[in-house]
Each structure stands twice: as C-alpha cells, then as structure tokens.
Write a structure and sequence with these properties.
about 325 residues; 6 helices; alpha+beta; 3 domains
Length: about 325
C-alpha cells in the first residue's frame, strides 16, 4: 500500500471483504492505517483460538481406573460381608425365648408380645423351629450368635461295622476241615469232623470234632477254614467252644489262630482259655490295630486286611480225653 491518504483499489477491495458495513454506507475514504489495525486484530484472534484449543484436555479414555472404582467398591463390600458371616457362624450360639400371647379374636385385640427372656450359654440347634400354638402364652425360640466363646471342635468317632457272624454251621460245615498236615502228626489227635444239631451256642447247628487225647505232655486237635477275609473294621475275633459234661475238669484249653499275608504267616493267640465241662466257653482275641493279644507281633491293618485262614485249636496238657468237642458262632465284633 502507498503512504498516501487516498486508498487505492486494493485497499478498497480489502475493506469490502472484511468490513461489509463500511462498504454498504459508501464510505470509500477509510484510512489505510485503520484497515491494517483491523487485519492485525483478526490475525491475533485466530492465534488466540488455536492456543486455547491446545489447552483443552483430551477426552478421558474409556478404560481408565475411575470407571472401575464402583465395581471395586462393590466387590470389597461383598467380601467384607462374607468374612463377617463366616466369623459369626464360628461363634457359640445362645438362645433366648420370646413368649407371645395370642388374644382371642372375639376381644378384637391383635397379637402382642407379653415378655421375653434370655438364657445365655446354651447351645441350640443351628436351624431351630419356630412355632406358635393355639393356646395362650405360646413361645418360639430364636438362636443368635454369641461372640464370647468359640465352638469347641468335636473329634469324629470312628464308626465300625456291626458285629458279624462268619460261620454258624446251620446248614453244613461252611468249609471247615481238619488240615492234611495235622493228620500226619502224632501230636494232633482230631479224628473226624461233622455238622451236628445235638447242641448249639446260637441257632440249631454246630461243628463237632471227635478227639482222642492221650496222656502226654502236649497234644492238640485243630480245625480250620481257608478263606480270604478283610477284618480291618473290627476289633475282636471270637468263637464258642463246648466240652461235654463228662469231659475232664483239668487242662483242656482252646486258642484262636489266623494265617495272614502272602507269606502265610501263622499267628496264634498269646494266651489260651481253659474249657469247662457243660459250659459254652468264649475264645476271643483283639484284632484292632496295635493289639498285643497275639504271639511275637503287634496287629496292624496289613495283617487284618489279608486273612487267609482262621483256625481253632484245642490243647491237652497231660489230660486224656476221648470224645466230642463242639464249636459254634465264629464271629467278628466291633466292641
């Protein structure tokens, strides 16, 4: 632009573009310095708008931590509730009784609570049953936890199988026999064996052994059954033995024997029981783990879980006797 006061054509066009109101009035003599100032002001406004736009922060990202804060708070609240409930369940319960008096509908009165009483220190069922009877002064029981004393831990009691009769000789010998190795020995004197109904300790049948004991320092009559048995859940093995009334009153004794394991270990009772004429005598030995009723070893589950044979042996010590001896009710016990 020229430094003259008369605007040229370029100034006039610029004035029309940026200052329409001026062009409409027909003022063609606007000074060039005013136009220059207005242009500068417009330029600075644009620069200011750009700087302000740069200062405006960007939108928050959708995955920011602030968006997950409500979820974290709810989760923490739920965890606190479960921990509190578990702690309260472990506490001892106390019982209080609320007596409720049910008025007669004819009187037009509604149900009212007449009184309540609290009995501390008593254990109640975890799920008490609340009930209201038709009679007056009915009551119901409510259990609430007490934070005073925790519940004592109760050690579970081992439950054994019920007593079981293994052999009762009601129909036959149930597989019992005189072992072949005993028939070849001169100090074993069992001659025959049979099932009989002559006498029985339980039921109507028993096993009869016919024996021939000489007067020697030691002789025996043995009968046995070969059968796999698992007796780990029982505490005792027992059998009944009967010596007839005419039998000797001196040293005839009975003993239980078991054979166990792959090595067929022969395990006999540590003590024997004296027979009495005219009475059923019980032979019994402890077979629970740790039992010391057996010779040369302590019973464990490896022995009782793999029983291969059960035997009963009648022993004579310088006592001659020829006649029958009866065996019945061979069983295992839980006591």
């Amino acid at each position: 632009m020229r430094a003259t006061k008369n605007p040229d054509k370029i100034d006039f066009e610029i004035s029309k573009t940026y200052f329409r109101n001026t062009s409409q009035k027909g003022d063609k003599e606007q000074h060039s310095d005013d136009i220059r100032k207005l242009l500068q002001q417009n330029h600075f406004k644009k620069i200011a708008k750009r700087s302000i736009a740069k200062k405006i922060p960007a939108k928050k990202q959708s995955g920011s931590i602030a968006q997950f804060m409500p979820f974290f708070l709810v989760t923490l609240f739920v965890i606190c509730i479960f921990v509190s409930a578990a702690w309260l369940i472990k506490q001892k319960h106390i019982m209080f009784t609320v007596s409720v008096k049910v008025e007669n509908p004819k009187n037009g009165n509604s149900n009212s609570i007449s009184g309540s009483s609290i009995t501390p220190g008593k254990r109640v069922n975890p799920d008490p049953i609340s009930s209201l009877s038709k009679k007056d002064n009915s009551s119901f029981v409510v259990a609430i936890p007490s934070v005073s004393t925790p519940i004592q831990k109760i050690t579970p009691k081992l439950i054994h199988k019920p007593d079981k009769t293994l052999y009762n000789f009601e129909k036959n010998l149930d597989g019992w026999e005189i072992p072949y190795w005993a028939r070849e020995k001169t100090d074993h004197v069992a001659r025959t064996i049979k099932k009989t109904s002559y006498i029985a300790a339980n039921g109507t049948g028993s096993l009869e052994i016919f024996t021939d004991f000489p007067k020697k320092e030691w002789t025996a009559a043995i009968v046995e059954i070969q059968q796999y048995l698992d007796l780990t859940n029982y505490n005792s093995l027992a059998a009944n033995v009967y010596l007839p009334l005419n039998g000797p009153k001196t040293e005839l004794r009975g003993k239980l024997i078991v054979t166990s394991g792959e090595d067929w270990n022969f395990i006999e009772m540590k003590r024997s029981v004296r027979l009495e004429p005219g009475k059923w005598i019980t032979l019994e030995a402890n077979i629970a783990e740790g039992s010391s009723d057996w010779q040369d070893l302590t019973i464990d589950n490896f022995i009782t879980s793999d029983i291969r044979k059960v035997a009963i042996r009648i022993e004579s010590y310088n006592t001659p006797y020829t006649g029958p001896i009866y065996i019945d009710n061979i069983r295992v016990l839980s006591r």
